[in-house]
Write a structure and sequence with these properties.
alpha+beta
């Protein structure tokens, strides 16, 4: 939708006005009546030309309208001149960021969570940003909050299934959020550069219960790892004893040794050894 507006260097226009003014003054010196006429004509031309002068800052665009009709945009920085009697609206093309408020949403598992995100964006089509929406800044704010809410309701806070994406999977969640926001804001001439979660926590009313749940999960995972390692160590010990012929054990004694070794290796407290000074079968 954006197109380039007709423009001329502003200093050239000013120079032309000065030359025309000097020529009108030189010609008008011959006759007072001619001076008044030429001065009036020059004054009207100067006012018309002055209405087209504008200053464009770096990373900024001027959206030019003539009697309500869009005639183009000027993004070349400097002192510019466009069509006279036009209105010019400034749109910044700088990279900007917006941080949503902390939103309280139920995740995919129904647990209330607090979530917030930061969105980095810039305007790439000044005409769409001005004419497609009332205020592109307000539009990006509302759409960002809507996208964050939708993201939170479609993913759990924490997932024990490796094939299921959770809100704690930063890279995947950021990519999904960025893609959704790009689809939502394209019609407003806005490009989403990045969107990331900046705050994620359980709601205060369930935070303690979820902390206990997470701790229990970590304990179970740690115990499973310990048991896995202990079984390997017991198997290695029995194989070495049998291979080197240190001692011959029947099935009952092997089972007892396995039990004792597992208690020693898997216990969370230090064990007290008992020395058997008599016969093994006593």
């Amino acid at each position: 939708m954006e197109r380039r507006a007709f423009r001329v260097n502003g200093f050239v226009v000013v120079l032309v006005l000065v030359v025309l003014g000097g020529a009108a003054l030189a010609a008008g010196l011959r006759s007072p009546a001619l001076l008044i006429v030429l001065g009036s004509v020059w004054g009207v031309l100067a006012m018309l030309a002055a209405s087209g002068l504008t200053i464009v800052n770096p990373n900024e665009a001027k959206v030019v309208q003539f009697l309500g009709r869009y005639v183009g945009s000027v993004s070349d920085a400097g002192f510019q001149w466009v069509l006279p009697l036009t209105t010019k609206r400034t749109v910044t093309l700088r990279v900007r960021n917006f941080e949503t408020a902390k939103l309280k949403v139920n995740d995919a598992d129904g647990s209330p969570v607090e979530i917030a995100a930061v969105v980095v964006y810039k305007v790439v089509d000044s005409a769409k940003a001005v004419f497609s929406v009332d205020s592109y800044e307000e539009y990006i704010a509302i759409q960002s909050e809507a996208a964050v809410r939708h993201l939170a309701t479609t993913h759990p806070y924490d997932s024990h299934d490796p094939e299921r994406t959770s809100l704690r999977d930063g890279a995947e969640v950021a990519t999904e959020l960025t893609t959704e926001l790009r689809d939502r804001t394209e019609l407003a001439g806005i490009e989403i550069l990045e969107a990331r979660i900046t705050h994620l926590a359980y709601a205060p009313e369930i935070a303690q219960a979820m902390l206990v749940r997470q701790q229990a999960g970590q304990v179970v995972a740690a115990r499973a790892r310990i048991v896995e390692g202990a079984v390997g160590m017991v198997q290695l010990a029995l194989n070495r004893l049998a291979a080197e012929g240190v001692v011959e054990l029947d099935e009952e004694r092997r089972a007892q040794m396995v039990s004792n070794l597992l208690v020693v290796l898997c216990g969370d407290r230090a064990t007290q050894p008992v020395v058997n000074a008599g016969s093994l079968y006593a």
